[in-house]
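Input structure tokens:
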């Protein structure tokens, strides 16, 4: 799975996941549930910006980090959502 595939899969999972007990969620959990669509939009926006900025930055380099690279940050969030880790 490419980084773009991972980001797209995470956005889809955010939009399609259902949560039993959402009606009785604590305020913090309710806020996270409400943040699903905005998070999906942020992931897709980072991917779109990356694609529009010229040659695709398909793989993050060793110097990339979530603090310095939007794609790396989006990928870290996507992997947390999907429960996957980068394989080397």
């Amino acid at each position: 799975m490419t980084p773009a595939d991972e980001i797209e899969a995470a956005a889809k999972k955010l939009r399609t996941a259902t949560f039993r007990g959402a009606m009785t969620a604590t305020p913090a959990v309710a806020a996270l549930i409400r943040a699903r669509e905005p998070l999906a939009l942020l992931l897709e926006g980072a991917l779109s910006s990356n694609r529009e900025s010229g040659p695709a930055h398909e793989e993050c380099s060793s110097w990339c980090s979530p603090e310095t690279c939007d794609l790396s940050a989006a990928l870290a969030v996507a992997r947390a959502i999907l429960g996957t880790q980068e394989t080397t």
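The chain has a mean pLDDT of 81. The two ends are 13 Å apart (CA to CA).
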